[in-house]
Design goal:
alpha/beta; Rossmann fold; 2 domains; 18 helices
Length: 464
């Protein structure tokens, strides 16, 4: 059996590991194993490519693996869960710029060898440059918005759609010219430049509340760019891996669009996150109607409850309050109180954000209830504890047609008998609008840092 045959067999094994790994990522119980299998598949694919192509020696392969593993371990240890969406955004961007540079390098290599690129190579090269550059710069803007470096508000201006259409048309026109005459390498870099501008324009117009959708979409873009680069290199496993990432990213984007009542077409063209035309004034919504409470009062209410539901949000992640949440859950269950968790699909800043935080505390996945499953049951819940969530429990989504969250499916916590909202202040969420839930007759506001308040609530409950 020759080297090429062995390489293809390893590619086949890696592809199977990618698919099985993705399947494992579909459920928290198997996610870690799925992640490891996907990583093993990528390791096999990289080693097989480098060895089969005679690119580097084994010593360099081992050295590269060691350096990459060290960087990954440091990031995994130091990056907080609250910053994970930014990190995912950067990873998407790195994948995009890698596609741009690899496709460009292969183009130069082919021309220097006095070989004319075929139609497949030419089209794949411009596709890598176009999609990769959009992904890289779009991901940098998304990172900036999530990190607070770039304004979280959508940057809108008169004629913005016309500008984006003109830039997109220019990029496509240059792509056609570059594909027809690949020897003119300056066209490839001009294409990358136009695509970079397009990536910035597309994402800068999207508000911070929609960044989870954008991250998923850019993840898909990075996969498409990688698949295109696979055609440039004639590398089967890269085509398969890129296609899997691209397809799964689009599926996730579509799921999140439905969860946020967004149009996928609008997201693709950077049309979401528009500034609302009108919004109620905070004083008008809250004036004289906020009922502040204490940990001791909430503890007494919990002692008389039969069913309690937690609704976590990004504020829980920021405060790192999941440990006292688990402690209070165990204390209430010891008193035969039924406790579960209502999870909104986009709670936090990325899909599964709350699931991961709660899983780290060994809270049973059976207690995590999806929005559609728990919403009909809220009228029978004695107490709902909203911890750091805002827009995903805002009843305005069901009522106001001119609101930025109008039509977005929410957790109907306002239908519970008592709602306790743990929050630092009455500041709005990403949507930038007041939340009438805070002023509802059945709502009590428990102000303070999420972790400290939960610790106080645990102590008060044990003493009650």
């Amino acid at each position: 059996m020759n080297v090429a045959s062995i390489q293809n067999l390893v590619y086949l094994l890696a592809s199977v590991l990618f698919i099985v790994g993705l399947k494992g990522l579909s459920h928290p119980r198997t996610a870690v194993r799925g992640n490891l299998m996907g990583g093993l598949g990528m390791l096999l694919a990289i080693v097989a490519t480098l060895v089969g192509s005679g690119v580097v020696e084994f010593e360099l392969i081992i050295g590269g693996i060691a350096i990459g593993a060290a960087i990954g371990a440091v990031l995994a240890y130091r990056i907080q869960m609250t910053a994970m969406p930014q990190l995912v955004g950067l990873y998407n961007g790195f994948g995009g710029i890698a596609s741009v540079l690899v496709a460009g390098a292969v183009l130069y290599q082919t021309l220097f060898a006095s070989v004319a690129p075929g139609i497949q190579e030419s089209v794949a090269t411009v596709a890598s440059g176009l999609v990769g550059a959009v992904t890289f710069w779009g991901s940098l803007v998304a990172f900036g918005k999530l990190q607070g470096i770039v304004t979280e508000k959508p940057v809108r201006y008169r004629g913005e759609q016309v500008v984006k259409i003109v830039v997109a048309a220019a990029a496509i026109a240059v792509a056609v010219l570059a594909a027809r005459d690949p020897a003119r390498t300056e066209l490839y870099w001009l294409l990358a430049g136009a695509a970079s501008i397009l990536g910035i324009l597309l994402v800068i117009a999207i508000g911070g509340a929609d960044m989870p959708i954008v991250i998923a979409l850019l993840n898909s873009y990075s996969g498409i760019a990688a698949a295109a680069t696979g055609f440039v290199l004639n590398n089967t496993v890269l085509i398969i891996a890129g296609s899997l990432v691209g397809a799964s990213g689009i599926i996730l984007t579509n799921i999140m669009c439905k969860a946020m009542n967004r149009s996928l077409a609008n997201v693709l063209f950077g049309g979401v996150g528009a500034i609302q035309q009108s919004a109620a004034d905070a004083d008008e919504v809250y004036g004289g109607r906020i009922k502040s409470t204490s940990a001791e009062e909430v503890a007494m209410i919990l002692k008389t409850a039969q069913r309690v539901s937690f609704v976590p949000g990004y504020g829980m992640a920021v405060a790192q309050a999941q440990t006292p949440v688990r402690t209070l859950t165990e204390a209430m269950e010891a008193d035969d109180i039924n406790v579960d968790f209502g999870i909104h699909p986009v709670a936090g800043r990325m899909p599964g954000h709350m699931n991961v935080l709660l899983a780290e505390e060994n809270i049973s996945y059976d207690k995590l209830r999806e929005m559609d499953a728990i919403n009909p049951e809220f009228p029978n819940v004695d107490v709902v504890i909203v911890l750091g969530a805002n827009d995903v429990v805002n009843p305005v989504a069901r009522e106001a047609s001119d609101s930025p969250i109008a039509g977005m499916p929410i957790l109907n916590v306002d239908q519970a008998r008592t709602v306790v909202v743990i929050k630092r202040s009455l500041s709005p969420g990403f949507a930038g609008i007041p939340n009438p839930l805070f002023a509802a007759d059945n709502t009590l506001m428990l102000f303070g840092d999420g972790k400290k308040v939960m610790e106080q609530l645990v102590s008060a409950y044990r003493e009650a």
